[in-house]
UniProtKB/TrEMBL annotation:
<keyword id="KW-0560">Oxidoreductase</keyword>
<dbReference type="Pfam" id="PF02770">
    <property type="entry name" value="Acyl-CoA_dh_M"/>
</dbReference>
<dbReference type="InterPro" id="IPR036250">
    <property type="entry name" value="AcylCo_DH-like_C"/>
</dbReference>
<dbReference type="InterPro" id="IPR046373">
    <property type="entry name" value="Acyl-CoA_Oxase/DH_mid-dom_sf"/>
</dbReference>
<dbReference type="Pfam" id="PF08028">
    <property type="entry name" value="Acyl-CoA_dh_2"/>
</dbReference>
<dbReference type="InterPro" id="IPR013786">
    <property type="entry name" value="AcylCoA_DH/ox_N"/>
</dbReference>
<dbReference type="InterPro" id="IPR009100">
    <property type="entry name" value="AcylCoA_DH/oxidase_NM_dom_sf"/>
</dbReference>
<protein>
    <submittedName>
        <fullName>Butyryl-CoA dehydrogenase</fullName>
    </submittedName>
</protein>
<feature type="domain" description="Acyl-CoA oxidase/dehydrogenase middle">
    <location>
        <begin position="126"/>
        <end position="218"/>
    </location>
</feature>
<dbReference type="InterPro" id="IPR013107">
    <property type="entry name" value="Acyl-CoA_DH_C"/>
</dbReference>
<dbReference type="InterPro" id="IPR037069">
    <property type="entry name" value="AcylCoA_DH/ox_N_sf"/>
</dbReference>
<feature type="domain" description="Acyl-CoA dehydrogenase/oxidase N-terminal">
    <location>
        <begin position="23"/>
        <end position="98"/>
    </location>
</feature>
<feature type="domain" description="Acyl-CoA dehydrogenase C-terminal">
    <location>
        <begin position="245"/>
        <end position="362"/>
    </location>
</feature>
<keyword id="KW-0285">Flavoprotein</keyword>
<dbReference type="Pfam" id="PF02771">
    <property type="entry name" value="Acyl-CoA_dh_N"/>
</dbReference>
<dbReference type="InterPro" id="IPR006091">
    <property type="entry name" value="Acyl-CoA_Oxase/DH_mid-dom"/>
</dbReference>
Length: 387
């Protein structure tokens, strides 16, 4: 089971060929980076140099102008090579895609920041906080922004700042009292009062270095007060969040490929031939490929619906459902792969144990499973009541 069925354009083929050339380098340090909780800086550098980080920037701003479907294909591929690289660069791709598609900033700011992206800038939103939890649940940030003279002064602390070692810009959410709303401020890494507190010590996506961002009276120009949002971001239809399930689908594909290779090569002396000939092993392989097929078809179907201007208005909860289905399927696929490989999969030198840990991080990326199920129910009830 592969993604070949979903490769349709020359652009897709071109970029998949480019990414395939990075496979050896990306895979080489995965185990080491996981053990040391070290960010794969060289991988991200290679993607920037290849022009990958310009792809979700629209053509009119000098970028590649790719669609969500393209991004999903590329992100799945990168994550299959190295999960941390996939998740990390996906945030940049998704943020840029949403910003420019929805024109969330003033045109002059979009144009000037596009130049930064074309020169290699990397950006991610910094929104999560220890006291508020996921911003998709609508919590008010403890980070505050107050106007002092011609500047905004921002203080607070954000957690889960993925890609913190290499980000050039942080899109920081803060409560703006005088606006009675949540503002987003574009802050340069070199800003005085901005620092990274190295707090990331987890079992999954260890190399993402999703440390805390500390803001100690950081001064920001008015032009960098780029967004004002009075509602939870989780209520918005944003197809660019599909980079999240694409990452976990890539991990699942890697687990499947390892398990299948093991099955066709492992020949214990208790049987004649490889274990792939055993009915119970074939049952596991069949379950894995069925789960992978279901997840991939659903994800790409939703991405294609989002890219279709006529179908997009019909989307209700499909984006969240895609994340739910793919993430949970990915967890199941890794589990089945480990059952096939047996105790060998628990060795620290075995990639399956890393996939097992990394894939569970998806449960804690937005939107959360309980919110997705709740919204599905609410939508069904509302539709029933109005018809």
């Amino acid at each position: 089971m592969s993604k070949d069925l979903f490769i349709r354009t020359s652009l897709q083929k071109q970029w998949l060929e480019t990414l395939s050339k990075l496979e050896e380098d990306f895979k080489r340090d995965s185990q080491k980076n996981d053990k040391e909780a070290a960010f794969p800086k060289e991988n991200v550098k290679a993607l920037v140099e290849a022009g990958y980080t310009k792809l979700t920037l629209p053509v009119e701003y000098g970028g590649g102008g790719i669609r969500v479907t393209d991004m999903v294909l590329f992100q799945e591929t990168i994550a299959s090579l190295d999960s941390v690289t996939g998740l990390a660069i996906g945030w940049h791709q998704g943020v840029v895609g949403e910003l420019y598609e929805k024109k969330l900033w003033q045109e002059t700011k979009l144009a000037s920041f596009a130049e930064e992206i074309l020169s290699g800038a990397l950006v991610n939103r910094a929104v999560s906080e220890a006291q508020t939890g996921s911003p998709t649940r609508g919590g008010r940030p403890g980070t505050n922004a107050a106007k002092k003279g011609a500047k905004w002064v921002i203080s607070g602390q954000k957690n889960f700042t993925t890609m913190s070692p290499v980000l050039t810009h942080f899109l920081v959410s803060a409560w703006v009292e005088e606006k009675q709303g949540i503002g987003f401020f574009l802050i340069d890494r070199e800003a005085k009062g901005l620092s990274i507190k190295e707090t990331w010590d987890v079992i999954a996506m260890r190399g993402s270095e999703s440390h805390d961002l500390v803001l100690d009276e950081v001064e920001v120009d008015e032009e960098n007060f780029v967004e004002l949002n009075n509602g939870p971001r989780g209520d918005k239809i944003n197809g660019w969040i599909l980079h999240i399930p694409a990452c976990y689908l890539g991990i699942a594909q890697s687990a499947r490929d390892y398990a299948l290779k093991f099955a066709v090569e492992h020949s214990p002396n208790s049987i004649s031939g490889p274990i792939s000939q055993l009915p119970n092993v074939q049952n596991l392989i069949g379950q894995i490929d069925l789960e992978l097929m279901k997840a991939r078809h659903f994800l790409y179907s939703v991405a294609e619906a989002y890219d279709d201007s006529e179908r997009r208005p019909l989307i209700t909860n499909e984006l969240a459902a895609a994340k739910h289905i793919v993430t949970n399927s990915a967890i199941k696929i890794v589990d089945l792969s480990m059952r096939l490989a047996g105790a060998k999969s628990l060795q620290m030198s075995n990639p399956l144990q890393r996939y097992y840990r990394d894939v569970r991080a998806g449960l804690h990326n937005p939107p959360m499973d309980d919110m997705t199920i709740s919204k599905l129910a609410q939508t069904a009830i509302t539709h029933s009541e109005t018809n």
